[in-house]
């Protein structure tokens, strides 16, 4: 096999690798990068061609039949896989992606979480059926983390994501303090399956935001992750659902959060639960149960985000709807014990953003009955620039939700730090690009405008809300 061909191509040809196998990405330099992957649990890896620091990947949006829980389901896929194949790159690489639209509808693609030139991440681009478009951008220093890709065609985003179009991007750093722990990806999503096909939501569901009835982890229903006894595994979670929130807890009690949207935190943070709104990512450490065969799981506790059904039922906001936790995936320990590994106390330094001169007020508002979703009183217009900012400056955005539902606020390209929520200082520093803003809440963000000039969108990541106009245009110059 030629050295430029990433060896994961082997799996495309149907090899059966043991769980936890380490796949080595050959490079033209002397350094080799090992990508821990678990083919039995994770989505397929994208076949990548590496020449020097340039990595080329092809993504074909195509209708295909995949297996969900043993049954064939027709979905919209990238390269025939659901979730789409995971792209693995390193900081400093240049990623080239050839996108081909083999669907019968228009589409496009967005690199969620990556700061790339505006013309390589244009939400107004249309790739018609039969069309192709090549994207190329550098993975900047500091971009290490768990990111993802999905279509961003205004009006069709919820429908295309709900029917299967999304995949993860793992950006590795050369000096990863968690390199000694195992590393596993878990893409969370949901789907509605009717007559053997994944379908989009109905018009009447758009105010709430479409939620599919089948909850999936890496395209599977309640899969099991196998660890070695004593092993500590880093799990990268992506919420790729169109609207569903995941409120995660471990049946073993307690979660150790080590990463967020924009990569690692400064220190591991102990938490009893973790809310993952659509678009958000997190990295947690899972300890294999000492006892062989004992099942530990990651559960979804259920979360009331203020949808109309909950309002009608007279339920109080943010209460547990279903105390019976439902398992997202199980974890078992098997085989020979893992070599001991201890977590570092410090993983990274996250500098506090410099104080900003400018404070912007951003108001999210909704009228559930008329399906009217706005930002600062307006619905999206791609010809209208809503905000202008200066490259190199840092701004504070005070994002207020005057509605009755939660809205996960997302900004393209520029990562931010959450300063406070309703005046309550955020517990720890993290780089984020999506933050849940609860009904009635004001969340203040510090946003350094670093990188590239151009137009970017910000929007609610309940994708129906975005499609209905809860989106604005920012121009940075
Ligand atoms: Cu997940 Cu505008 O994006
Ligand atoms: Cu995005
Ligand atoms: Cu919303």
Could you characterize the architecture of this molecule?
4% of the residues lie in helices and 44% in strands. It is mainly β. Strands 12, 13, 14, 16, 18, 19 and 21 form a seven-stranded mixed β-sheet that branches. β18 (255-260) and β19 form a beta hairpin. The structure holds CU-O-CU linkage and copper (II) ion (2 copies). One copper (II) ion (CU) binds next to loops. The site of CU-O-CU linkage (C2O) has 10 residues, from β8 and β33.
Layout of SSEs?
Blueprint: H1 9-12, E1 22-25, E2 33-36, E3 48-51, E4 54-68, E5 71-78, E6 84-90, E7 94-101, E8 110-112, E9 132-138, E10 145-150, H2 157-162, E11 167-172, E12 182-194, E13 197-199, E14 214-217, E15 224-227, E16 232-239, E17 246-250, E18 255-260, E19 263-271, E20 274-276, E21 281-287, E22 296-300, H3 308-312, E23 326-333, E24 358-367, E25 372-375, E26 387-389, E27 394-401, E28 407-411, E29 417-421, E30 424-425, E31 434-437, E32 442-448, E33 454-460, H4 463-467, E34 471-476
Parallel strand pairs: 4-7, 6-11, 12-16, 15-23, 24-27, 26-34
Antiparallel strand pairs: 1-2, 3-4, 4-5, 7-9, 8-10, 10-11, 12-13, 12-14, 16-21, 17-20, 17-22, 18-19, 18-21, 22-23, 24-25, 27-32, 28-31, 28-33, 29-30, 29-32, 33-34
The structure holds CU-O-CU linkage (C2O) and copper (II) ion (2 copies).
The site of one copper (II) ion (CU) has 4 residues, from strand 8.
